[in-house]
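Example (one chain per record):
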Amino acid sequence: MYRLAGFTRGVTATNDAEAIREEFSRIMRLANYVRPLHPLFARFGVMEEDIIARGQALADQMLLQEEQSEEDLAELDRLSASPNTTFLFDEPESFLKSMIEAHQRKVADDPQTPIFLSVRTDGTYEGEIKRTVYRHGRSFGSLVLQMPMHDKTDFWYQHWTTMRDIMLATMDIWEFDWIVAQPTMYIGLQKNLFPDRRSFGWMGWTPQDLPRDASSALARMEPLKGGTFMLLQERMMNMKAPDIETCNKAEAYLLDRGALAVL
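Predicted structure:
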């Protein structure tokens, strides 16, 4: 699977409810943009809370195991494939209300809890939009667009400009200070060179005006939206060793130029 992942600048809302309304409006814009790109993107919604909780508890348990059992993997697949019970495009106002109420319940237990908003498609190889906003004294956030992957007919196997266009559309909705497109498991398997810093991947954008030189370790570095667009290679990055090594070299290059901030 592939994902777009980025860090956003400060949030200006005066309270959590206002921030949720603003972020929900942005999520709807992104959902409507990607909706025509893949059949699953028309099925953004949420599952029943108990199924979500069981899936999260099982995933957390599996992270502590050196080797996952076939039974646990099968159960996680079954829970992930559970159908959504509420669909975003059918009941957007109901969605917004439930998001505000869910956050209010969390705040009752932890007043410093961040705002976390998520809509996902159903099916084992699901897509998801995840938005996290930290407001209390830090005022920044993150955005992840998880893309369903079934086979090579999925849209991101097309020319690299297809993924770039999705990234640019996302940047029209949020103000980023770092955004990348990368294989989901690049971070899941901790293949990035500097675990304590931001990671790269197949392509990305930084607000910095990075120097262009022959030793850049990147196929493209171009001015874009007041910053720099970066492309590792025109062929889509995969999780095989040669592509991981190429990406690690690019991360070392970007670190030397001050582009990889500490997490």
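Caption: Residues 184-263 form one domain.
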